[in-house]
Design goal:
The chain is mainly alpha-helical. It has a single domain, classed as Up-down Bundle (Rhomboid-like fold), CATH 1.20.1540. A 3-stranded antiparallel beta sheet has the order 1-2-3. The longest helix is centred in the middle third of the chain and has 22 residues.
């Protein structure tokens, strides 16, 4: 199943979410202009490699992607869930929240695979944090979701069902990947798990408002 959109009004323009998406797209477009050797060097230089960790990679790695599907999938999820979290936090706190979730997500993956020499890249850990926050703030929001069981159809599903299912899938696959991720690479499941939990914790301790009380020019 694939979430298509949420039925949850946003009361302000999600400027930070749009800027984050634009930066991710711009970086990826730069990546695809590089020759294979330079592209690999770029990922090795700015991706998070646990075996030769440096702090800046905690941030730079979340703006890199391994392919078009990786990029599109991440940006699609951010667009669905990000506007409402930006709405209740405000632009400045939301930017802090997003970066903090991404850093904690990458740290979680690194803690599980400390000797890995494979670069971890992608915004999915930070976006998992946004999803965790969405679960806390909007559990009953309806998500228009695409299903296929022989036939293709859409249903409106409560966010709590979609997000809990997604998290359990990451947890199940993450446990199954222990012992292999440091040598085979693949999906950074523990970045997803860590980011999701970070998002839940941070949204509970950060000050939020009812979205209808916010205006676009008062979000900083």
């Amino acid at each position: 199943m694939i979430p298509l959109r949420d039925i949850n009004r946003s009361y302000s323009t999600p400027l930070v979410t749009m800027v984050i998406i634009a930066i991710n797209v711009a970086v990826f477009l730069y990546q695809v202009t590089l020759d294979p050797f330079s592209s690999n060097h770029f990922l090795m230089e700015y991706g998070l490699i646990p075996a030769r960790f440096h702090f800046s990679a905690l941030v730079t790695s979340m703006f890199l992607h391994g392919g078009w599907l990786h990029l599109i999938g991440n940006m699609w999820f951010l667009w669905i869930y990000g506007d409402n979290i930006e709405d209740v936090l405000g632009r400045g706190p939301y930017l802090f929240f997003y970066l903090a979730c991404g850093i904690l997500a990458m740290a979680s993956q690194m803690a599980v695979t400390p000797s890995s020499r494979i670069p971890n890249v992608g915004a999915s850990g930070a976006i998992a944090g946004v999803m965790g926050a969405y679960l806390v703030k909007f559990p009953h929001a309806r998500i228009v979701t695409l299903f296929w069981f022989g036939l293709i159809f859409t249903l409106e599903v409560p966010a709590v069902l979609i997000l809990v299912y997604w998290f359990m899938l990451q947890l199940f696959n993450g446990v199954g990947s222990i012992g292999e991720a440091h040598v085979r690479g693949g999906v950074a499941f523990f970045a997803h798990i860590g980011g999701f939990i970070a998002g839940i914790v941070l949204i509970l301790i950060m000050r939020t408002q009812q979205p209808h009380l916010r205006r676009a020019d008062l979000n900083w």
